[in-house]
């Protein structure tokens, strides 16, 4: 199973376009953003270390750790055996000691092997020790579906980890998100689950001089309004933010002005921004790749019903992945995850612009 994922990763890297970012560039890939964030934090703080499978000699399964072994050496960039429970436990122990480990999972699906350490050892220790034990650790890696990697490698863990007190859960979309949130996560005194998306690694995004500054961070727990609108609120995170923005472009041609919120942080969740938007637009569509039952969208809907029910002019629409293990076949896989047209249909239903046809997801 793991060898198949490694082969899949290598194929993506051959077809991708990793490049170093020049100081004069105004765009940055998510891959470069993550690499530079880790690099800068390791340079600024000798307590920061990177640990995981192939993070050193191979420079990361997705080349996120490119160049770091040569720069910082094997004591701070540690290649491990294929044993998530082992190196996650070592990372938590190092955090107890005062170090700041960044633990990479080749895919977050493999974090299931280490979930006891993430939840019982990392998330609960500060509370159970009455604040005497701080656990400054980041668990990061690709989350959710890629392309044709099967059900065991395609699950979204946002709702899983966001349900656990003691953890912070971040989900970057753009290069700005990746840089600012990862730097904030590494500096945070609490354990952070950092859910990236494999298909976004090679995507380029515009970045400002402020984003490229080594002191740049983003606040944990604060969403970003990617596009302002007045007719319907669309919430999304990770890759689905791009889908929501594309849907907003289509909706604009039909006279519907959608507001798109990039959640960025799943725990803590920026309920105030979401509710303020719904109170303006009076409609809500939530979008996620995860399963619908007990999902992030369900939590957002509950928050809006509790705080802003009187402002709603239409039922809340939830767009999520199908309630099935992810199919391997490409045509079925597409049907199992939200598409732009699903978001468009849901938004039109919320605005009373369409018939009764339901979204496929």
TrEMBL record:
InterPro entries for this protein: PDHB_mito-type, THDP-binding, Transketo_C/PFOR_II, Transketolase-like_Pyr-bd, Transketolase_C
Pfam family name, one: Transket_pyr
Keyword Oxidoreductase among record annotations: yes
Catalysed transformations (reactions): N(6)-[(R)-lipoyl]-L-lysyl-[protein] + pyruvate + H(+) = N(6)-[(R)-S(8)-acetyldihydrolipoyl]-L-lysyl-[protein] + CO2
The keyword Transit peptide is assigned to this record: yes
GO molecular function, one term: metal ion binding
Oligomeric form and interacting partners: Tetramer of 2 alpha and 2 beta subunits.
Protein name per the record: Pyruvate dehydrogenase E1 component subunit beta
Organism of derivation: Lupinus angustifolius
């Amino acid at each position: 199973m793991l060898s198949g994922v490694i082969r899949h990763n290598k194929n993506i890297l051959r077809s991708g376009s990793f490049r170093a970012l020049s100081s004069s560039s105004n765009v940055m890939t998510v891959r470069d953003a993550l690499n530079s964030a880790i690099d800068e934090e390791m340079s600024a703080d000798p307590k920061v270390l990177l640990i995981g499978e192939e993070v050193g000699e191979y420079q990361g399964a997705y080349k996120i750790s490119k160049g770091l072994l040569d720069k910082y050496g094997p004591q701070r960039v540690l290649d491990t055996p294929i044993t998530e429970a082992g190196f996650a436990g070592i990372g938590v122990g190092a955090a107890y000691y005062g170090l700041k480990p960044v633990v990479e999972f080749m895919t977050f699906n493999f974090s299931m092997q280490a979930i006891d350490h993430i939840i019982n050892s990392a998330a609960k220790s500060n509370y159970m020790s009455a604040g005497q034990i701080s656990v400054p650790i980041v668990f990061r890696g690709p989350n959710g579906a890629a392309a044709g990697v099967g059900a065991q490698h395609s699950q979204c863990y946002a709702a899983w980890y966001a349900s656990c007190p003691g953890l912070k859960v971040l989900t970057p979309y753009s290069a700005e998100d990746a840089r600012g949130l990862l730097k904030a996560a590494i500096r945070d005194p609490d354990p952070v689950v950092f859910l990236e998306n494999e298909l976004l690694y090679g995507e380029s995004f515009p970045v400002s001089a402020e984003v490229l500054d080594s002191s740049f961070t983003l606040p944990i727990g604060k969403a970003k309004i990617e596009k302002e609108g007045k007719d319907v609120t669309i919430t999304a995170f990770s890759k689905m933010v791009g889908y929501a923005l594309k849907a907003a472009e289509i909706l604009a041609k039909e006279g519907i002005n959608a507001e798109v919120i990039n959640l960025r942080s799943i725990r803590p969740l920026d309920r105030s921004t979401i509710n303020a938007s719904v109170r303006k637009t009076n409609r809500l569509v939530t979008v996620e790749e995860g399963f619908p039952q007990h999902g992030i969208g369900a939590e957002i809907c509950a928050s809006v019903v509790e705080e802003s029910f009187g402002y709603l002019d239409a039922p809340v629409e939830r767009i999520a992945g199908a309630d099935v293990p992810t199919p391997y076949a490409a045509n079925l896989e597409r049907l199992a995850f939200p598409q732009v047209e699903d978001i468009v249909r849901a938004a039109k239903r919320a605005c009373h612009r369409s018939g009764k046809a339901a979204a496929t997801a």
